[in-house]
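Hi R.,

Here's the chain you asked about this morning:
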Amino acid sequence: MSNPHPRATDTKFVYQEFGNDNSPALERPIPELPPQQQNLKVQASRKGRKGKTVTVISGFQAKPETLTDLVKQLKTQCGTGGTVKDNEIEIQGDHKQKIMELLTKIGYKAKISGG
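And here is the predicted structure, written out as tokens:
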């Protein structure tokens, strides 16, 4: 005897306008620009961090793997922790000048933003 209520896995969609279809075809490709074509902003920030200062580098147009490699380099050079959040790199502490020098040495166009 057939089941009058098929399970969700048995259901085949004929048409679906909206939904949680996370197929690779719907993902937007992130353009990977060479370092010379990227304009980065380096700034120290304390907002939402309980008074702790972090150096935020924003303006990247790169893949997450590239940012992960770069944050690893910057953390090592500054001797501190850091992370990648929302296509921005956060390094603990106020290291604007040092990060600025390191980024320009690698080939990025960077400038210090804010006070």
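One quick note: The helical segments are 64-78, 96-106.

Cheers,
M.
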